[in-house]
Design a protein that fits this description.
Length: 152
Amino acid sequence: MNTTVHNVTTRQNVLLIEDDEFEVDLARRAAAECCPEIELKVLESVDAVLDWLGDTRKKAPYLIMLDLKLPKLDGLAVLRRLRQHDATRDIPIVVFSAEYIQDDVRLSYQVGANTFVAKPADVAQFSAFLREQMEYWTHSRQREALLAGNAN
């Protein structure tokens, strides 16, 4: 089975905001296993996210994955900041959580999430999740729709 994304010719920066070491390891192993087109950048603290946002030399990510239930961070506050920042305003943001609570889903979409999904539990699920997200957001129509929606 071919596991590469066909429309990607260069490595794409993908930003993962997650502070759980197990989850970070899971994401790194999944990216290496299934998605060689991904350059995974992990930020584990609110300070790291703010520093990253303030560094204009950083290449904007193609996709941002944000754990909503961060023990040291308020995921909704991070999402709000990402949507207010010029460099990340139009970048697809996928929010995930181990708990699927309707209020969290609603608030995530209100604040600016493009997708809310259940957190992948193992390498196979994380690999499938990464492939799905990259394939979905690689299609130009999806990105065009996102940009058109944010222009209003």
